[in-house]
Each structure stands twice: as C-alpha cells, then as structure tokens.
C-alpha cells in the first residue's frame, strides 16, 4: 500500500470535511442522510417501525491510496542500477597547483539520467591541506546564483576545513593522489610509507546528477570500519550494512538513523610484518598466530555533505549515495586510531562546544505531555517530595508562550527535539 504525500493527505482531509457537510441518500438500503455538524454525518433508518438516527462512519475513498512507490531502491530488486547504466566521466585539462591539481570532467557517453539529470561538466580540485589531510572536491563546473545553493554547503552551516601551509612535495606528506581515465575517470589515495591503497574508485563509474550522486571505493576483504554515527549498531560496522545519514528525531531505533549525522568512518587495517625483510602483508582473515609480528594502521574518510545520504557497506566496497550537494571528501592518514580522531576533530569539524552551565543541574525529560497541566503536575510532584530540579525538557511548543507562573523555582524549561 503506497503512503500518502502531504498533498494527498490534505486532499483526503478536505474530502472528509466535504462529505461530513453534505446530504446523501441510499435508496437501496432505505436510508436517508441529513446534513450534520462539521465533525459528523447522521443518517436515519426505520427498524421495527421505529425511526432511529445514527452516526455514519467516514470511509477513506480509494483515491486516497494513489501515490508514488516509495520503496527504497536498495530494497527494490527491480531498481535501476546506476553503475550498470551510466557512462562515467573523462578527465581533461589536468593542471598542477601549489597544493595539488585541478581538472575538468566531461561525461564519457550518453547521459543515463537514472535518478535525475546528468551534469555534463564537473570540476575536480585536489588539495593537500596539511601533512595529514587530503581534500578531493568534485562539483558542477558551472555555478552561479541560480544553482550554487543546491551544490555548495555554506561554511557557516558546516565548518569548511582550511587550507594549511604544508607543501605537497614535502617528505612529511604520506598521502598520494593518483587518477586514471581507463576505462573512465577514477582516482585512488595511497599511503606512501606502506603502499596501501586507502581509497580507490577504480572498477566503478562516477555518477553525478542534479539529485543523485554515487561513487564507489573498493575495500579489502573483511574490512574494519567504525563510525558513521549516529545510530545504535555494533562498534564494527560490518560488510553488510547500510548507514543512512538523515537526522531523525527518534531515540532508539536499532540500526536506524537517530539525531546526529556524522558521515565519517575510521578504517583500521592489520599487517603481518616479516621480521627479516620488514615486508608487510595485509591480514584479511582471523587466522592469526600468537608468535607473529603484527602492525595496525588506521586512516579516516569524511564526506562533507548535509543532504540525505547513505553509505552501503558491501562485501568488497563502500558505495556512497547522496540526493544533492557535492563530493567533498577528506582523507586523514592517522596512522593510529587516536591520531585519526584528532585530525578529524582539530582539522575538519572542530572540537565539541564547552558544556553550558545549566546542564550540570538536575534535569527531567519525557515525551507525551498533552497540555500545560500535565507538566505542572510533574513539577509539583518534584516539589512535594523535595527532589532537586533545575531544568524540565518538553516537546510542546505552546508551553513556551510566557506562562511560567506556578513553577518559578524551576531554573528553565527547554524544548526537547
């Protein structure tokens, strides 16, 4: 059964109001309905010679079920697969810059237009921003006041990491960017010290439409990804999981999106080190031994995008999809887990705000207040039992219309959610 859009729901409600204020008859049943109040429809019937009036229950018309199929394409076996239908891009006019390179991307074939309209020309910018952070930006080449807000995320909404002063040719930079046009444009980010490929889109195509973007990064077998908050899930995300990035005002759905939106993951890889040669071999199974020499290396990836987004963690890759914005990727080289976290916080998003003074007090919070009286009863009960209370959290907007009498000893009332 298709769900109603807001417009269809409104039409259903107006249909209900119209039906409740009209007069109808049904000769076959011997019933006649008379105009009733705006909230009910009445009919009369003769039963055993006695005329009886009763309320006629409203039935939602069949037309109210008309709506689009909203089955997510990740759960629809018949959904169009962009990787199979879209041509990808070809890079041209590649030029070195002080901190990286720029290039122009053109569609490599006929537009596929699977979930929108393909953007013909894109702009690629790669910057080594610090000794530990690499930025990869892909956005439409032609932006003006008519479309810039659709693709560019303002710095005042989500912090834009600033360009550092480290030059890309210094020995301190352990990240290396490479790209190819065979068969279509793809890129990779390597760790120079180990030769490990941290991010790799080879073997896939870039899909960039006005309301759908998709790109794929290959991953080693049995990879270890952490992060992608906020949700209730195992610490290790696993390779059969879809993370949805769309902040929802929901407290405890398992594996579902909750309040926060953090499109960032930490990838930890383990290597067996040959004691005599120092050669590293990636460990992708649990077949380890106690006497072997192992090392762990971690890196992080941050996708700066505030549109509805999902990351499909599949057995061999991670597939990123978003319904808007641009590709604004940041790779952090770590190489330890705590170093990745610090690079992400200090260099990309900033540290958490200092906790406000009022938050250190005693708080009370719940859902479901139906009116002001219910809230007042809760506060009075705290008072009756001499339980400290500085802040009450509630979810009813109209409780904040300057009515504070009776609970003036409560420090604050705050909106929840």
The second-level CATH architecture of the largest domain is: Sandwich
Number of domains: 3
Question: Uncertain spans, ≥5 residues at pLDDT below 50?
Answer: 1-39, 398-408
* The CATH H-level homologous superfamily of the largest domain: glycosyl hydrolase (family 31)
Briefly note the CATH topology name of the largest domain. Immunoglobulin-like
Biggest sheet character? 9 strands, antiparallel
As a percent range, the share of strand residues is 25-35%
What do you see in this structure?
The chain has helices spanning 6-20, 82-85, 148-151, 337-349, 372-384; strands spanning 25-26, 31-34, 42-47, 50-55, 89-96, 100-107, 121-130, 133-140, 175-180, 186-191, 197-200, 207-209, 212-218, 225-227, 241-245, 264-273, 280-283, 294-303, 309-313, 317-322, 327-332, 363-365, 391-394, 412-415. The strands form 5 sheets. Strands 5, 6, 7, 8, 14, 16, 17, 18 and 21 form a 9-stranded antiparallel β-sheet that branches. It is mainly beta and 417 residues long. The chain contains 5 helices and 24 strands. Strand 2 (31-34) and strand 3 form a beta hairpin. It starts with 5 loop residues before the first helix and ends with a strand. It has 3 domains: 6-65, no CATH class; 82-349, Immunoglobulin-like (Sandwich), CATH 2.60.40.1760; 357-415.
Short structural summary:
This protein is mainly β and 417 residues long. It has helices at 6-20, 82-85, 148-151, 337-349, 372-384; strands at residues 25-26, 31-34, 42-47, 50-55, 89-96, 100-107, 121-130, 133-140, 175-180, 186-191, 197-200, 207-209, 212-218, 225-227, 241-245, 264-273, 280-283, 294-303, 309-313, 317-322, 327-332, 363-365, 391-394, 412-415.
